């Protein structure tokens, strides 16, 4: 995959920068060497608020990861200990969305959510500090969340003139229930890590110094399991709230398995060999 420049962080992993994402400005993409890809939003002076460029780089990284057989699990995090992500960068919010270098206003984070949901590999949010606004939604869209004790969670939309009626609302209510979701959005309060854990928003709370090591432990535990089973389970759990798109993702996993079977390959081979397919050996049991 073209990795270089080993640098050492916490968690006992020698993270290596991924060459093909080396030109990125807002996102650092690193590989553990044994299956874990770490994506770090690097705008700490803005509490890791995202701008269109940040989202583009995350999208490119996820597309790369989707096709990369070496990557089994993804960690998504923010630079530093102050914030995971504080949502959309309000300083470049125009009248119709967040304005990038091309001058076009967009709400592109919604596309990123879909990419993350469709990724057939687990994404774990590693949260230190604030996960606020669109940053809170990003952690919710991740499959699992490990939080440091200093983590703080909340929505700000109705305070800053915004709202996410997509995963930010409907999926939140699936996770924490309707009453709590309404509380989150209508009051715009902040919740600490323990409160988030009690609500089921977070899988584990650890001391800040332990955050990366614990997250890596979860990744490695997942990597001991069948990747196909994990991909099918993620698709099945998504299908519960993703409608036709969710069913299509789940069915795509079935088609992928079918393509790998002798029965599926007999259909292809018969067509190419201009003969009648012989499916007799593959009767259902
Ligand atoms: C995150 C905070 C609670 C942190 O508070 P703290 O006191 O620790 O730090 P400061 O407030 O002093 O911030 C330090 C520094 O960072 C700048 N900053 C922080 N967040 C942002 C931000 N989101 N955008 C721009 N800049 C930010 C801050 O201005 C300071 O800079 P200085 O130059 O003054 O040093 C607190 O910062 C906070 O509440 N931040 C705002 C959180 C927020 O409201 N986020 C936006 C919500 S809306 C959203 O994210 C969103 C995005 C989308 O793309 C959508 C798409 C489609 C539908 C809905 C969307 C949506 O709702």
UniProtKB/TrEMBL annotation:
It is an enzyme of class 4 (lyase). It holds the Pfam family ECH_1. Keywords: Lyase. Coiled coil: none annotated. It catalyses: 2-succinylbenzoyl-CoA + H(+) = 1,4-dihydroxy-2-naphthoyl-CoA + H2O. Its EC number is 4.1.3.36. It comes from the Eukaryota. CDD domains: crotonase-like (cd06558). InterPro entries: ClpP/crotonase-like_dom_sf, DHNA-CoA_synthase_MenB, Enoyl-CoA_hyd/isom_CS, Enoyl-CoA_hydra/iso, Enoyl-CoA_hydra_C. One of its GO terms (biological process) is menaquinone biosynthetic process. GO terms for molecular function: 1,4-dihydroxy-2-naphthoyl-CoA synthase activity. GO terms for cellular component: cytosol. Belongs to the enoyl-CoA hydratase/isomerase family. HAMAP family: MenB. This is 1,4-dihydroxy-2-naphthoyl-CoA synthase.
């Amino acid at each position: 995959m073209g990795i270089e420049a080993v640098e050492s962080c916490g968690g006992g992993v020698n993270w290596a920068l991924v060459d093909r994402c080396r030109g990125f400005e807002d996102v650092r993409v690193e590989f553990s060497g044994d299956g874990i890809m770490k994506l770090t939003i690097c705008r700490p002076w803005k509490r890791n608020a995202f701008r269109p460029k940040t989202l583009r780089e995350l999208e490119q990284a996820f597309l790369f990861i989707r096709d990369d057989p070496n990557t089994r699990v993804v960690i998504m995090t923010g630079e530093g200990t102050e914030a995971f992500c504080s949502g959309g960068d309000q300083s470049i919010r125009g009248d119709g969305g967040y304005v990038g270098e091309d001058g076009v206003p967009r709400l592109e984070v919604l596309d990123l959510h879909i990419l993350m949901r469709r990724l057939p590999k687990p994404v774990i949010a590693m949260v230190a500090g604030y996960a606020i606004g669109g940053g809170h939604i990003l952690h919710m869209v991740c499959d699992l969340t490990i939080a440091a004790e200093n983590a703080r969670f909340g929505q700000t939309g109705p305070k800053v003139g915004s709202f996410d009626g997509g995963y930010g609302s409907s999926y939140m209510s699936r996770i924490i229930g309707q009453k709590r979701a309404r509380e989150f959005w209508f009051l715009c309060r902040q919740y600490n890590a323990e409160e988030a854990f009690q609500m089921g928003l977070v899988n584990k709370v650890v001391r800040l110094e332990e955050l990366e090591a614990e997250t890596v432990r979860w990744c490695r535990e997942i990597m001991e399991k069948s990747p196909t089973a994990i991909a099918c389970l993620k698709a099945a759990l998504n299908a519960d709230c993703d409608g036709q798109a969710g069913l299509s993702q789940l069915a795509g996993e079935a088609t992928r398995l079918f393509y790998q079977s002798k029965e599926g390959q007999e259909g292809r081979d018969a067509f190419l060999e201009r003969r009648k397919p012989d499916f007799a050996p593959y009767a259902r049991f």
